[in-house]
């Protein structure tokens, strides 16, 4: 059934999918078409059950079909799908986000992470009156033109488009540096500091698998932005409310006195699986947005009443005492179990996790940047992926994507995953 659905899809949808990574192009084979999901599992069109470690790429932190979330969504849907006018629930969700993330004083709700990242970039430029920005190779901030950029040819050079259809002049103001490279960071600010509107970074990158920004690197990002008048923008679409209740920035705040970003981009978990995202920051910056200020941003479905109900119910559940302690311990057990299974079989393997987000690499030590991530043995990963898929375990179908554990995953799910990995590692 999966095969026939894929052939049918390819006739009417480019590549047969509505987001490229779903196509299994990186790993080979036929994508699984999901029929339904519940808890930590989903079932494909052939009726096969899988332990789900992508969770819609992060939002399903409670698992699929959580009763409190379902109830909130069903009630909201009965009241109306969309109004094009303000609702009280938008205020409640904004208040909940701000209460959990101290760096935020105001937020604007939107419908996707790409929209939030694009809007935050425009706001940073409008608030500073500058045009140039810094981003890092391997960090993905959505598919807005100015952010689809790869590294230039030399140290502190401006980037080149990574997609057809993006003119070079659109990314001419985007400087792409190596993640965790202090030397390049210093050089970039030395050369361009007076012209930089912002530095945008994933504090824990999830699109080159799971890679953390080192504490010294993040500390220096904050210092240089402050010294040169650039805004430090945290893209926490993936890590926000996923790695900790206060998001990744709360982890750095414990390690760097007085640390906080100027702006934050959020998505995924705050929508609970519905199309919802947000960007926010200090009041002085956010009040540059229309209708108060000159930076225009709008959206017909922004603050959608069903999406806000889903997001608000999700945030209420994850705010309960002990939630992240339990989730983090469960994720650690998975990563430790996989690592031990590989090492017992003499296979290179390493992993890392924070809260309900994790990653692993088929190498001896954790990589610190995109170039090192891409030295991973692709064919070996593909073999592992398909072995796990055959065993009913669904990891991301690409070696450069992070994974996600939910509150619905049980010890039995973790054990079954580790045993399936162990069986594969002893065969190769």
Give an overview of the whole structure.
The chain is of the alpha/beta class and 428 residues long. It folds into two domains: 2-65 and 321-427, Aspartate Aminotransferase, domain 1 (Alpha-Beta Complex); 67-318, 3-Layer(aba) Sandwich (Aspartate Aminotransferase, domain 2), CATH 3.40.640.10. It has helices spanning 2-12, 67-79, 88-100, 113-128, 182-192, 215-228, 247-255, 283-286, 305-318, 323-344, 370-373, 378-390, 411-427; strands at residues 34-38, 41-44, 49-52, 106-110, 132-136, 149-150, 160-161, 174-177, 196-201, 204-205, 211-212, 231-236, 263-266, 277-281, 350-354, 357-361, 393-394, 403-404. The strands form five sheets. It has a seven-stranded mixed sheet with strand order 4-14-13-12-9-5-8, sandwiched between helices. Strands 1-2-3-17 form a four-stranded mixed sheet. Strands 15-16-18 form a three-stranded antiparallel sheet, with helices on one face. α5 (182-192) runs parallel beside α6 (215-228). The longest helix is centred in the C-terminal third of the chain and has 22 residues, at 323-344. The model is unreliable at 153-157 (pLDDT under 50).
């Amino acid at each position: 059934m999966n095969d026939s659905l894929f052939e049918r899809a390819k006739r009417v949808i480019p590549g047969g999918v509505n987001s490229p990574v779903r196509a299994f192009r990186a790993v080979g084979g036929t994508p699984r078409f999901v029929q339904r999901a519940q808890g930590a599992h989903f079932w494909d069109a052939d009726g096969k059950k899988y332990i789900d470690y992508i969770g819609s790429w992060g939002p399903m932190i409670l698992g699929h079909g959580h009763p409190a979330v379902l109830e909130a969504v069903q009630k909201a849907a009965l009241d109306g799908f969309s109004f094009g006018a303000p609702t009280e629930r938008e205020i409640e969700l904004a208040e909940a986000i701000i209460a959990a993330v101290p760096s935020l004083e105001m937020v604007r709700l939107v419908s996707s992470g790409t929209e939030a990242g694009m809007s935050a970039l425009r706001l940073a430029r409008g608030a500073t009156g500058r045009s140039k920005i810094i981003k890092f190779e391997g960090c993905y901030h959505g598919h807005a033109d100015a952010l689809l950029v790869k590294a230039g040819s030399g140290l502190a050079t401006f980037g080149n488009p990574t997609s057809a259809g993006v003119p070079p002049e659109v990314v001419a103001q985007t400087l792409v540096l190596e993640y965790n490279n202090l030397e390049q960071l210093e050089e970039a600010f030395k050369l361009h500091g007076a012209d930089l509107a912002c530095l945008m970074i994933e504090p824990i990158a999830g699109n080159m698998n799971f890679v953390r920004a080192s504490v010294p690197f993040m500390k220096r990002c904050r210092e240089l932005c402050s010294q040169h008048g650039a805004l430090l923008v945290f893209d926490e679409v993936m890590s926000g409310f996923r790695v900790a209740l206060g998001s990744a920035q709360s982890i750095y705040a414990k390690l760097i006195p007085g640390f906080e970003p100027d702006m934050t981009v959020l998505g995924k978990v705050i929508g609970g699986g519905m199309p919802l995202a947000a960007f926010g920051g200090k009041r002085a910056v956010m009040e540059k947005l229309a209708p108060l200020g000159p930076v225009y941003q709008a959206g017909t479905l922004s603050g959608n009443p069903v999406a806000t109900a889903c997001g608000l119910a999700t945030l209420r559940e994850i705010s309960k005492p002990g939630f992240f302690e339990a989730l983090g311990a469960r994720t650690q057990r998975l990563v430790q179990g996989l690592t031990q299974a590989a090492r017992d079989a003499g296979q290179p393997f390493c992993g890392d996790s924070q809260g309900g987000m994790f990653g692993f690499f088929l190498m001896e030590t954790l990589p610190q940047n995109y170039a090192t991530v891409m030295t991973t043995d692709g064919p070996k990963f593909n073999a592992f992926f398909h072995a796990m898929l055959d065993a009913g375990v669904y990891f991301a179908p690409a070696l450069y994507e992070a994974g996600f554990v939910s509150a619905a995953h049980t010890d039995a799910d973790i054990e079954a995953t580790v045993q399936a990995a162990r069986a594969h590692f002893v065969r190769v």
